[in-house]
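idk why but the lab printer keeps eating my pages so im just putting this in chat instead. protein + SN-glycerol-3-phosphate:
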Amino acid sequence: MFILINLKAYPCDPLEIANAARDVANDSGVRIAVSPQAADIARVSDTGVETWAQHVSANNYGSYTGSTLAEAVANAGATGTLINHSERRLTLADIDTAVNAASRVDLDTCVCANNPAQIGAVTALSPDSVAVEPPALIGGDASVATADPDIVSNAVESTNSIDKTVDVYCGAGISAGDDVIAARDLGASGILLASGVAKADNPRKALEDLVVPI
Ligand code: G3P
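predcted complex ->
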């Protein structure tokens, strides 16, 4: 299972979490990546942890003030990127262009969507992975894999019916190892989580607890 820790804009210490994630990944053998604010990508990447951007823009080089250029996040050390997170939504046309932008610099792409129908639409754009996250469960205590298991299994079915090479992740409310196992049993090959680590009093312990049953 792949574990992607999205730090969003939470008031956490990205280096503390990056160092902990690197150590826990090395000790457990579980693939763990950290997705910090764009301005923190270089120093997070310098810790040695797998580092992802939270977003890349659909533009190339040029007069695009305020954009997040795929080349810039790759040069800073990111090796993957989220696209169309529920809190950073794009049009389908911009998702397509952003996936292509990320592919220019070999970033792993994970396109998020809110439900299995959207998952089907974005799978057709051939990202490396898609992630289903029901907005109502994001930031809460109830894990998507137990509170709404059908949304995960339906997303897996939807993706597999279009392109079996695209991995399916899920996220929202995941904070414990049992949640990760439940997601895996539904067919997901990775999970996205944020508050369970970024808002934890002890992020290292939260990460250690997360990988125990995997
Ligand atoms: O990108 C992951 C995120 O949206 C899930 O957030 O706080 O429910 O783990 P959280």
